[in-house]
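Open question from group meeting: does this chain pack into something compact, or does most of it stay loose? Before anyone orders reagents, we agreed to write out a predicted structure and look at it together. Recording both the input and the output here so the notebook holds the full record.
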Amino acid sequence: MFSNRSDPFTLDVAYGPDIATIVHTPDVYPTGANITLSCSATSNPPVQFTWLHNGQPVSNSATFSFIASLNHAGTYTCTASNSFTGLTRNATKNLIIYAPLSKPTIVTSNITAVETKDFSMTCQATGQIHTYRWFINGVAPAGSRIQLSPDKKILTIPNLTRRDNKGPYVCEIENPLFSNRSDPFTLDVAYGPDIAMIVRTQDVYPTGANITLSCSAISNPPVQFTWLQNGQPVSNSATFSFIASLNHAGTYTCIASNSFTGLACTANKTLIIYAPLSKPTILTSNRTAVETKDFSLTCQGTGQIHAYRWFINGLAPSGSRIQLSPDKKILTIGNLTRRENKGPYVCEIENPLFRNRSDPFTLNVTYGPDIATIAHSVDEYPIGANITLSCSAVSNPPVQFTWLHNGQPVSNSATFSFIASMTLSGTYTCNAANSLTGLTRSATKNVIIYAPLSKPTIVTSNITAVETKDFSFTCQATGQIHTYRWFINGLAPSGSRIQLSPDKRTLTIRNLIRTENKGPYECEIQNPFYSNRSDPFTLDVAYGPDTATIVRTVDEYPIGANITLSCSSKSNPPVQFTWLHNGQPVSNSATFSFTASLSLAGTYTCSAANSFTGLTRTATKNVIIYGVLGNVSVCQENGYKNKPQAWELWSSYQSSICYFFD
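Structure tokens returned:
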């Protein structure tokens, strides 16, 4: 059995690097400084070192040296690598290299600092600047109106003021190794113009006056002046002179402008240039002044008129009927009167420098016609008379006359003459017209022209005049009748039974009487110049019959006797007779004859009728006709013998009959 051992074998364990470490040195250097960077790392086998500057290899040794320049600033990385373990460890170091700082300058946000506006100043510098600082009048900024940007590079002053924010301003820059300050900066604050002022002068000038206008305004920089007249430029200087003419009147505007602040202020002045006033004239509202109407007078003037004044008969107008327009240019007279408003009228115009008056104006007030009057003359004329009608009326101007006859024009003169004829009677109207006042007054006159009257006739109301009835007569006539008159038997009518119509034309007799009312009757017609009478008219009064009378004869006749019955009656006209036998007509004559027979016995009635009066009268007669006598015992036996009435007995057909007569 054998054994054997190897030589001892020591294991060389490769490890690391566990960590890479850069030897501690400062991180900040000025340019030109000697800088050495050294790196270490525990490793088996020893590590391979690589230095990187901002990621770019610059050395493969553990220690790396260089002279500082701005290019050397940045991140340095030490890389420690073990190719056996495959491990790599890194360590980094940032180096800051500072160069000296150049002098900063103050740069403004705007070319010009303008009052009330915000203004910024920037501290302009190059280099590695860590801090900006500002100084105003040597003191750090303070107060709510000073604003700094977060990096303090920009200083802003809100709402600049000319007095508080002039400065001087200084800005300072610094880093851990260097610092530097700007030159002092004084702020020229532009302001204004605050207000433009025109040097006080008068506002009113006559033509030909020398006028100078001067304007001023506080401003930085000084303002530019522009003068405008009524909006049009006339000068670019502070002072502006001219000789006054009417063309120079108007509004003058001084414009003071600052192109830096962008502000402009204006001041205005109104110049009134007055020329002498020409003589005014008085114009009327209407061609004609008419009484009772309103009338206006206008003061017509040219030029610069400030006030109008009126004078009536040399005095200022007064009274409730005088009215002036608000500007006093127009004077109105209410309800003109011919006596009070003649004038003369004068109007005056004036301005602050001049005045002038019109010539006197006398008002010719037209009036009327007040009333038209026809000269008094008679109204009634006979045919052929000479008639003259004359009319007058008070008026200014004189009226135009027109005569109308029944509405138709017949003359245009104040006086109108003609010879009376029937066609010329009627209403004559005088029209008096004033074309200027528009008034017309009229007067009328009725002219009655009478012709001779024709003979009237009497007309009756009925064909027949009947006694006891009313009867009327009418006076029938033609022509211009004013009055009717009646005559009965040559005398005027009288008595209660005589009645006349209101116009007397109709005469009525109540309850005619044959004996009293025969007449004769006459009617008469009249007018102021003529009269005429009718022919006499006799009234034939119809009357009756008053009574009917049968001529007295015996009442009893034997058979075969000749009997004549006769009847009479007073009447006008004569009556118509009718005989009735026991109610049956038997004759139409006044006398009626027959031969007696028993059948003709009975009651005979005479009827007398007047067809005009409408009256009828009757008379009766009982006629007894006797036949042969018979036995009368029946009547005696029957107790009639002792009757007080007369009685007769006649027999017929073998019987007895009694007849009794009252």
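Observations to bring back to the group:
Residues 632-662 have pLDDT under 50 and may be disordered.
Residues 77 and 92 are 4 Å apart (CA to CA).
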